[in-house]
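Quick review question:
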């Protein structure tokens, strides 16, 4: 029995040993095969390497430069067989991948490169107005605006955040790539600007003795306080009973203590209408021009004879001639713009409107305001009756009240009257027979007449040879008046 049991045990042990042996042998063979497979795989799998970094970050709108790759099999270069897929759009921010692959039969090697296109540029934030602003005390700053532009996002003005602080504003803007720009506008609360104080009307006003000085006032506008005309203080008085030069000072102070002042001269002058303070003088006066040709010839003669004259101009003729008259030292008087009796004497307003037109022309061309006038037809004209009864009686007073001096004549050449159609001797005879050493000789002529231009030198010679002297009219020349007939 024991013998049988022993045999069975021995048999079982032998079987177990055999099983173990087979299992180990199998595992060993399997491992060898696996190793063999790995060796074969590494031999037959192509090798692929990327040049440069696998992860690249580049700026938006720059150029992406492929850094290259290399592939080999059995030590042989097969780079040309590498397949590359994917592209990089540098115009658009984002993450891009490029796939590289190389095959050998069923074996394939792959590589990936990641490219990040980013926007690193900060937005540009521009403030309209100044970055350091002076604000009126007790006033708040009124936003002047701003603009934000980003190289990638374009106009992002609407994304600007404004943070208001006591003495400054902060402006913040962020683009889609989180680049931030901050700007500051700071305030100084102060007012150091004086009010703008301006005279209404002329800075010099002429008033005839015993006439009326009409105050035209001033206007005061302050940068902080607005219209403060009501705060203007006026100093100085005009006594029109006493001729002389008066000064009126206007002064205004704004709430912050800034002072502004302006002055006006008021000249009260003696009415020296009928007086002649320079007997034997000859005032050569020419009306109705300027006119090309005649006026030029007259100016040439005056220049050659070194005589100054007076031109009562209209709106006729070229500005260059008017300018020449002034620049060659002659007096420029106003004779109305249109010289149309029906228009000029239609009403007081019509007269002054017409006078202003020619006055503006003279001011524009010569930069000089003329206060010397001659009425069309003279102050004694009767033609104005047709258009307005009594207008000359009113006008002769009104012009003086407005500071004008008007001049008629006491020597008529009749170059525009009886001598028209006759030879130039008609003019010469009229003038030479009417001159006197006992008066201020105011000769009426017209520089639009050829006979006048042609005889002028003879008249000047007559005057020079007979003890007369020549002068132009100035604001100090006594008015030569005729009697008013309307
Ligand atoms: Zn005239």
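Suggested answer, residue by residue:
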């Amino acid at each position: 029995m024991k013998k049988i049991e022993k045999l069975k045990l021995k048999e079982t042990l032998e079987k177990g040993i055999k099983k173990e042996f087979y299992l180990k042998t199998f595992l060993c063979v399997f491992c060898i095969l696996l190793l063999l497979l790995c060796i074969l795989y590494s031999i037959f799998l192509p090798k692929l390497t990327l040049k440069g970094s696998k992860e690249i970050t580049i700026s938006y709108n720059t150029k992406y430069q492929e850094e290259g790759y290399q592939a080999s099999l059995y030590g042989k270069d097969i780079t040309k067989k590498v397949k590359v897929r994917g592209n990089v759009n540098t115009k658009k921010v984002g993450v891009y991948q490029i796939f590289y692959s190389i095959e050998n039969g069923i074996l394939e090697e792959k590589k990936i490169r990641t490219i990040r296109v980013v926007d690193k540029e900060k937005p540009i934030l521009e403030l309209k107005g100044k970055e350091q602003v002076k604000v009126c005390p007790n006033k708040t700053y009124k936003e002047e605006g701003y603009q934000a532009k980003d190289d990638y996002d374009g106009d992002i003005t609407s994304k600007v955040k404004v943070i208001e602080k006591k003495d400054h504003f902060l402006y913040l803007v962020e683009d889609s790539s989180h680049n931030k720009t901050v700007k500051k506008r700071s305030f100084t609360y102060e007012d150091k600007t004086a009010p703008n104080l301006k005279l209404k009307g002329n800075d010099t006003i002429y008033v005839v003795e015993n006439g009326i000085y009409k105050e035209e006032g001033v206007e005061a506008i302050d940068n902080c306080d607005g219209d403060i005309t009501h705060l203007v203080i006026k100093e100085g008085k005009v006594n029109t009973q006493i001729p002389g030069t008066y000064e009126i000072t206007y002064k205004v102070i704004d709430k912050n203590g800034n002072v502004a002042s302006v002055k006006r001269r008021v000249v009260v002058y003696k009415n020296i209408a009928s007086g002649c303070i320079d007997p034997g003088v000859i005032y050569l006066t020419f009306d109705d021009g300027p006119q090309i040709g005649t006026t030029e010839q007259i100016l040439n003669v005056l220049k050659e004879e070194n005589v100054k004259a007076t031109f009562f101009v209209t709106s006729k003729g070229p500005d260059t001639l008017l300018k020449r008259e002034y620049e060659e030292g002659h007096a420029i008087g106003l004779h109305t713009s249109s010289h149309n009796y029906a228009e000029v004497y239609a009403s007081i307003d019509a007269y002054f409107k017409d006078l202003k037109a020619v006055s503006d022309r003279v001011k524009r061309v010569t930069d000089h305001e003329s206060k010397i006038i001659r009425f069309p037809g003279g102050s004694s004209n009767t033609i104005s009756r047709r258009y307005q009864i009594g207008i000359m009686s009113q006008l002769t007073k009104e012009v003086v009240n407005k500071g004008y001096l008007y001049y008629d004549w006491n020597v008529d050449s009749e170059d525009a009257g009886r001598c028209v159609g006759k030879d130039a001797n008609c003019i010469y005879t009229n003038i030479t027979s009417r001159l006197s050493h006992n008066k201020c000789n105011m000769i009426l002529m017209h520089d639009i007449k050829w006979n006048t231009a042609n005889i002028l030198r003879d008249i000047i010679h007559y005057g020079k040879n007979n003890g007369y002297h020549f002068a132009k009219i100035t604001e100090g020349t006594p008015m030569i008046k005729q009697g008013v007939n309307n």
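Why it works: The mean pLDDT is 92. The domain at 47-118 is CATH 2.60.40.10 (Immunoglobulin-like).
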